[in-house]
Each structure stands twice: as C-alpha cells, then as structure tokens.
Amino acid sequence: MSSAPPPRSLAAEGGRRAPVRRANRAPAVAGLALLALGGLLVLRRSNDDARGGAVPAARRAGPRTTTPRAVVFVGVQTAPTPDSAARRAALRGAWFPATAAALARAEAEGRVRARFVVGDAPDAAAEAVLAAEAKSYGPAFLRLRGHTEAYDALGNKSVAFFRAALRDAPGAAYIVKIDDDVFLRMDRVPAVAAQWGRMGVDVAGCAKNGPVLNDPALKWSEPAAALLGDSYYTHFWGSAYVLSARAAGAVAALAADGVAGLRARALANEDTQLGLWLLALAAAHYDDRRLCSPGCDGAAVAVYDYPTCAGLCDAVEALARLATDPACAGGGSDPPLVPELIRMQGL
User: Fold this and answer.
1) Share of the chain above pLDDT 70, in %
2) In sequence order, which residues have a C-beta less than 8 Å from that of residue 18 and are 6 or more positions away?
3) 173 part of a folded domain
4) Is residue 167 predicted with pLDDT exceeding 90?
5) What is the pLDDT of residue 169?
6) Burial per residue of 204-241, b for 16 or more beta-carbon CB atoms within 10 angstroms, e otherwise
7) Helix (H) or strand (E) holding 5
8) Helix (H, G, I), strand (E, B) or coil at 34
9) Of 20, 35, 331, 5, which is closest to residue 191 (Cα–Cα)?
10) Of 168, 126, 114, 124, nearest to 144 (Cα)?
11) Which helix (H) or strand (E) holds 202?
12) CATH number for position 296
C-alpha cells in the first residue's frame, strides 16, 4: 500500500466507486479528446523507445550477468511508516521473497522480479529506518529518488514507478503494481502473464466506476469534479493492476511530455488519473477479476477484501492467515480465466 493509513474502508465513504456490471456511459471528460489526439502518437513513441530509446539503451546493452531477464516486474507499493514496515514483514512471511537469495531465485526460475517500491522519506529518521531494512534484506527495494512520499502524490509515484521499473527490468513484458496490503499468488504470475501476452492485453485489473465526489471533507474528493460530470469513466481498482511495458512507457511519456505542448491533466486520485490517461491511449483493456479475489480460489491471483476494503482490512493478521492456507500455496498451473464484469477485450 502507499501512504494511506490502513484499513481503507470503502463503506465509510458510502461505497464510492463500487464494482460495476456494465460499461458506464458517462459524459465525455473535458480535455479527453485532446489527449486522445496524441494518444496514438505517444503509444507509438513508447513502442519506438522500447526498441531503441532512453529505456532501450539498457536493453541494447544486454544483461550484465547470465541470470535470465525477468518477464514480469512486481512492484509492491509501500511507505516509510511503521504500519507499512509491519506489512512488509508480514509479506516476507507470506509471499514476498524474504532474502536476497530468494529474490534471485524468483527471478532466475520464475522470471519474476519483485521489489518494494518507495520514494524518499519525509524525514531523516524514517529514511534511516528504510536504509537499515534495505541493508538487512539485500536488493528488496526499488527506491524512487526525487519523489517524496505523500498520500496526495500517489499518482506521481505511480508514474515514477513505471519509469523506474522499465529501467530496472528492461526485458519485462508486464509491470504489476500491487499495494502492500494485498496477498499475491506470485507462483501464478508467470503463467498469467503468458495468458495476457497471448490475449494482447496492455492493461488488466478489476474494472469499476461510480460517482464523482466533490466534497473536500471526503477522502476521495476530486477538485476537478466540474470537468468530469456525475460519474467516472470505467477504470481499475488501484490495489492491484497490470500494465504492459509499452503501456507503462506510454503513460510515462504522456505524463512527462503531454500532447501538443499541453500537459496531461492530473486528477487527485491515482486510479482515476491512470484510468483517464489509459482511456486516451489505444491500449487494450481487460477486466481481469482474478486480480481482486476475496480468497485463494482456483483462479485467484491477487487476494484482498474487495469491495469492503481497498486491500486486506487487517493486513498483518490476514497475510499470516493466508500464508498458512493450503489453498494459497504452490501450484503455478495456468489459473482459469473468469468472466469479465465489463467486456473490454479489443477496446
């Protein structure tokens, strides 16, 4: 998870952005047409970059060791707080590789690179705690230097993460963004990534929409509500979602360069901001309900207390329980596809 205090209950906010059963036909977002005009150009530029631009320089250089390149980068979004530190400890006891050797083995055998993703701490004491933890656990952290952790900067953090992941794992086909209060079936990630690749998926997650809140007293209030209308366009839960390398590159390019001299519009909430930008790009969306499973069923990939909380409601206790649940252990066979609530393949 990011800098928000757990648990993140949706009930307290009136169930905002509840799961949807059909596509939302909300009014067009002001400025979306302009973004769309440049979306294809940005996506094409990101594809060119992926073959030979700033990120690809690392690709052309090739790996520095004989370790196989990761095909999936899993970035666990975390924060320099005691609560997040407790969740990181629980994750190491559940599914996150707990040692430098385990991290290397996951990458060499499973082709998955997993890292805790965190920016700069807001004070020296918190930064020292992070440094000590990093020293104890080897290359477990991807540090976003220059980005200071703050709850109201999560959208910027995600963009910084996409850029850093593309640099850190230039051969990765997919980038998984997951919060530190979510249980991930990492053993299933390679098989699922292969499924996404065969389907041509650029972005996968659990789709939703819902009312736009404009009351500053509410947690997820949106200052740009007047531009959005009453309902959000379809977008994905921020707790766990996936971008292809080309989509991540396109989002990073759009955030950095904008279109025709205009910056891409930033919204207050990470999930809706990313959804807006992806809607402007010709990226293939897929409503993959395996990324918001309430338990370790036969298809589960990401497990959390959807839709009651935007993660596991009591993450430390729940992670320990799931770690000992036989249904959550081993067996990386292809998890079956499940029906989409919103049919988006080919869109």
Assistant:
1) 76
2) 10, 208, 210, 307
3) yes
4) yes
5) 92
6) bbbbbbbbbbeeeeeebbbebbeebeebbbbbbbbbbb
7) none
8) helix
9) 331
10) 168
11) none
12) 3.90.550
Q: What is d(CA 169, CA 191) in angstroms, rounded to the nearest whole number?
A: 18
Residue with tokens 């082709």: 111
Give the H/E segment covering residue 294.
none
Residue 293 has pLDDT above 60, yes or no: yes
Reply yes or no: is the peptide bond before residue 190 cis, omega within 30 of 0. Answer: no
DSSP string, 62-94: --SSSSPPPSEEEEEE--SSHHHHHHHHHHHTT
In the chain, how many domains are there? 1
Which residue(s) pair with 259 in the sheet? 262
Helices (H), 62-201: 82-92, 100-110, 124-137, 154-168, 189-199
Helical (H) or strand (E) element with 221: none
Query: In this structure, is residue 344 part of a structural domain?
Result: no
Instruction: Give dist(CA 168, CA 163) in Å, integer.
Output: 9
d(CA 118, CA 123): 14
Domain annotation covers residue 337: no
User: Which of 70 and 104 is assigned the larger pLDDT?
Assistant: 104
Residue 205 belongs to domain spanning: 11-61+74-328
Q: Residue 24 — very low, low, confident or very high, per pLDDT cuts 50/70/90?
A: very low
Contact predicate 119/143, CB 8 Å: yes
Within-domain flag for 336 = no
* pTM of the predicted protein model: 0.79
Mean pLDDT, residues 287-313 taken together: 94
Indicate the residue type of 145: R
Q: What confidence score (pLDDT) does residue 332 get?
A: 56
Measured between alpha carbons, how far is 162 from 19 in angstroms, rounded to an integer? Answer: 26
Cβ atoms of residues 191 and 274 within 8 Å: no
Whether pLDDT at 307 is above 80? yes
